[in-house]
Amino acid sequence: MKALELDRISYTYPGGTKALDSVSFSVEEGESVAILGSNGAGKSTLLDLLLGWNKGKGITLFGKDLADYGRKELGRNLALVPQSEHYNFSFTLLEYTLFGRSPYLSQMGTPTEKDAEIAVQALKDVGLESYQDRPITSLSGGEHQLLLLARSIAQQSRILLLDEPTSALDPANRMRVISILKDLSQKGKTLLFTTHDANLAYELATHVAMLKKGHLLCYGTKEETVTSEMLTTLYETPLYVGSIEGRTLIY
Length: 251
Ligand SMILES: Nc1ncnc2c1ncn2[C@@H]1O[C@H](COP(=O)(O)OP(=O)(O)OP(=O)(O)O)[C@@H](O)[C@H]1O
Fold this sequence. Notes:
The strands form three sheets. This protein has a six-stranded mixed β-sheet, sandwiched between helices. By secondary structure, the chain is α/β, with parallel strands linked by helices. The protein is built from nine helices and twelve strands.
């Protein structure tokens, strides 16, 4: 089943910047898609369109027009892991992770024991369970990024959108997040993530979308798209795709 279809998506900001120009591709459920592109290429604009924060036409989610989704229904299908988030109040980690359960709560409803179990398990998945009663304001930058992933795991959406999911992480936590995301992907979750790390894209993605100045330079399997020529064209700087001990390495 198609999880996502983009049909000639364009977006111009009020000031007149055309951030996306006729971008089309589709994603099957269970695929993992890396969105690559230089600074200002339109990656965040695309994520904001998928989340309905920027309004646009031509986006279909599981066969239904994005514009026809209610807020909670959208939350059950799509979760975002931003790079960071500003906190207005000092919740505990567990309370914050429980926000991921919002799309499943009734009007004025409070989270159930089952919701709490799911949130605790999500904190365990990212290795933050021993911090669950600590205030979120006490976290380091990397822990903060792991918490945002935990909240989205608790949300149990069919698609996960991730904005630079490993940007603040040390090597051990980077590996942990890659392993969590691979596991989610194997269980059938559809992933779309932006990254400046072509090695991460190659390791985690099944497919790659390359955006250049708002245009789709190419879309296809990682084997088709991640080539020295394509990456050099995308970033306008020499990049090479090689192999060390049987593993693909981009440098
Ligand atoms: N709120 C806004 N108002 C006007 N122009 C914007 C706004 N947000 C982004 N832009 C412009 O739209 C274009 C695409 O920006 P976008 O943030 O989508 O790029 P990006 O690929 O996510 O970049 P980066 O890798 O630097 O995060 C850029 O030219 C940017 O300056």
